[in-house]
Design brief:
There is one protein chain. This protein is an alpha/beta fold. It folds into four domains: 1-201, Up-down Bundle (Growth Hormone, Chain: A); 230-259 and 286-431, no CATH class; 440-477; 487-755, Vaccinia Virus protein VP39 (Rossmann fold, 3-Layer(aba) Sandwich). 59% of the residues lie in helices and 10% in strands. The chain has helices spanning 2-32, 36-64, 71-85, 88-106, 111-144, 148-199, 227-253, 257-283, 288-306, 319-351, 355-384, 386-404, 408-427, 440-443, 489-499, 516-522, 536-540, 564-570, 596-604, 623-636, 695-700, 706-713, 725-728, 731-735, 740-755, and strands at 449-455, 460-466, 469-474, 477-482, 506-510, 528-533, 557-561, 575-580, 606-617, 641-644, 657-662, 702-704. The protein has an eight-stranded mixed beta sheet with strand order 7-6-5-8-9-11-10-12, sandwiched between helices. Strands 1-2-3-4 form a four-stranded antiparallel beta sheet. α2 runs antiparallel to α11, α9 runs antiparallel to α10 and α15 packs parallel to α16 (516-522). The radius of gyration is 28 Å and the shape is globular. The protein starts with a helix and ends with a helix.
Length: 758
Amino acid sequence: MARGLFSVLFFLGGAAALAWQVLWQHRLSLALGATAQATALTVSTAMAGMTFGAWAMGRRARRWESKPVRWLWIYAALELAVAALAWLPEILGGALSRVDASLYQRAPSFGPVATLFPLALTLGPASAAMGATLPVAGMVARDLGGRLSRYYGLNTAGAALGTLGLAFWIAPLTGMLGAAQLATLANLLVAAAAFVFGWSRKGQAVPDVKPEPAVGEASDEDGEPGAAGYAFVTGVAVFGLEVAWFRALRAAWFGTTDSFAIMLFAILVALAAGAGLAGRIGRTGMSVPAILGIGGVLVLLATPVVERFDLFQLGRASFLGFSLARAGLALLVLGPPVTAIGVSLPMLLDREKNPERWGRLYAWNTAGAVLGATGTAWLLLPAFGYVPAAWLMGALLAGTALWRLISARARVELGLFAVAAAVAAWFFGSGAGRVRVAKADTFIRAKYRVIETRNGPESSSAVVESGGARALFIDGYLATAQTGNPRNYMDAMGRLPMLLHPAPRDGLVICFGTGQTANGMRDENPERLTVVDLNPAAFAFAGHFSANHGVLDDPRVRTRLMDGRQWLRRSPDRYDAIALEPMPPFFAGSNALYAIEFYEEAAARLNAGGLMAQWFPLHLMSPEDARAVAAAFQFVFPDAILWLDPASVGGAGVPEQGILIGRPRSEGEEEEETVEFWREWPGFARSGERRVLGEDEARAGVWLTPTELRAFARGAEPVTDDNQLLAYGRERFDRSGRGVLEILRETFARLEAARNGR
């Protein structure tokens, strides 16, 4: 019974810890930006905190080992510490954002490095408490007569459950703040149960025990036969594979929050399974190098299948069915190699007999994880692509095994298997990321040609050409395209706010794409134009799209490589017009560019009379999502209108592309007064380069006035940073079984009803 109770506690602790890490990433991406650099800083800081916590508690537990200590009480204290300290990112997020902005304005090049100190103060304490639970769990396991690998596996399984629970249940029902409260409650329940259970159990003092070297392994003088190196290599490999394989899966299933949750769930379940097998495999006498070698071979064999995930037809009859199909496929393909890799660290923990070495092994493993994630994202992906990066992780595991195996026969056998697996991985490779663009066949039915590809820490991007048209793919999604028609909504999105302004001087475009929106704004002759995008490939590919007319070569245009919200916070500049076309609303991270808080930040950067234009893709939103976006936009811009592009009529027979245009209220304007700014189009009295949008077309495109837009959005919950309606909203469960055309017609019917006063 004692072991079972602690198993439940450690399982719940793992679920809460994973939930906190997701919540931290969400909160700090809002504070520091959604760039790969900001994400790396956050992850590295959290990992460093866990490393320090495990190492420090391991040393402390080693000193207390000879004393009768109630280790369950210490575990309870650590869970209480997590419950309290995990709120620091939420409490200090605003201050951290202000520090980041101040540092950037004073020293842009050193801002990220200087942010590390306040970030460490924010994330470090709770992360250290989480890391400290590992050696304490080992001491509890010793008192209860169990194996540390068992509790390590249960903790990882809890993290897997926490991943799915947060994405599919908790966040949709409670929002991010509610999720944090539930995570706190879980920590408190675990702490209370551990305290009560520990009341009747007093730890036993034990003498120092020197571990015996494992069968078949070389020995080191300190009794750890290469253990630190193995722990480090497994950390590098697992997190390196997460980055590489996740890039392939993101292209196959799109970068949505549910896809990320399913991918992470599969990895964590496999790691938990590996921990569960560690004791049994350890008793066979199999060496850790042999296990790593098997893992490396399986990685090489699995990668050709992973890179073809976009070719599997999983069906979308229902959200539940699609989710189960994705989870099943991920477990089937990723499970075996990750399970094999996941055996090694728990086995090493079982073979060590004192807490200081447990903490040291965990520290080496987390250090390897940081190196694996950052090194793969910043070095391997840009240099080789995500498929060869996965090959290199397999080669690292196999190479480590060949180096450390004692038996010459074992080295020869493993070497032959590894070479055969490497040849198979190369021979059966699909060319994904090089000559084949994931998901391109879904969007382009005709034959296409890959012009250029780029892989970076943010995304994998490609330019393809088919039938004279060119398209920009980002992580398997056709983000934007250039066709033969110069008259399109992207051009209009840049022009409309300029044409509605009497004398625009400064413009801002967030998300560059093919550059057509930036060109539309530039053609209306501002004195200065700033273009912001977090994907460097977008700027690098600009020359492939003639429709932007070399906008980046214009001396009036400057580019900034960062998240749009990050730029609005960091820069003191103000604008007369802002336009943006982010990735689809349902993609992970896009919620931040459709939320009330973002619109408030944008409004604060608009000069008096300035206007904001926001992409409103009817074909990519359910009716409820569209109403939520409109409600958020009009919350900040009460006089907003909806403009529909008549040239975007698609298969449903209705326009697919819309643009929300609004202006913040100026001082002195009555709250109930509607300023009909859309009645006048002063920009048409000015000369404009390559202007293909006529005044009559511009006026006719005004589909909903502020009153009508308000009627359309009435009763809808607006999108916020907390509710994450577009990322986690329950609407995902309702819309997945319906076709795009059906959803589009329903949304348009509601727009017509609002327009006609019904």
